[in-house]
Amino acid sequence: MKLTKEEQELLTSIEAGEWRSVKNLMSEKKRYAMIARHTLRKDKRINIRISQRDLEGLQVKAVREGIPYQTLVSSVLHKYVAGQLTAR
């Protein structure tokens, strides 16, 4: 069976013993489900004006990721606010 590069890296990591079982698996699942629910809840709407070039660029990137472009925009904004996205 031929593995992708990512699959091979994962297999190597597992075989090297870099993975550990999670204690209290069910409570951790519930905790992360709650975090996801609150993170993914979209209860506000905004309207912004951007250049057509930027919009088309977002749409191309979203197609490559297999997600709607609005979801991509929301994700980028969330990462920026959370401090996970910084300027180069």
The first-to-last residue Cα distance is: 39 Å
Large-scale geometry: extended
Give me the strand/helix succession: HHHH
Round the Cα radius of gyration to an integer and report it: 18 Å
Number of strands: 0
Q: Give the number of helices.
A: 4
Q: What multimeric state do the chains show? A: single chain
How would you state the average pLDDT, rounded?
90
Question: Major sheet, described briefly?
Answer: none
Tell me the structural class.
mainly alpha
Which runs of at least 5 residues are low in confidence (pLDDT < 50)? none
Helix content bin: 55-70%
Beta-strand content estimate:
under 5%
Q: How would you describe what is shown here?
A:
The protein contains four helices and no strands. With 88 residues, the protein is mostly helical. It has a domain of 61 residues. The longest helix has 16 residues. The model has no long low-confidence stretch (mean pLDDT 90).
Quick take:
With 88 residues, the protein is an all-alpha fold.
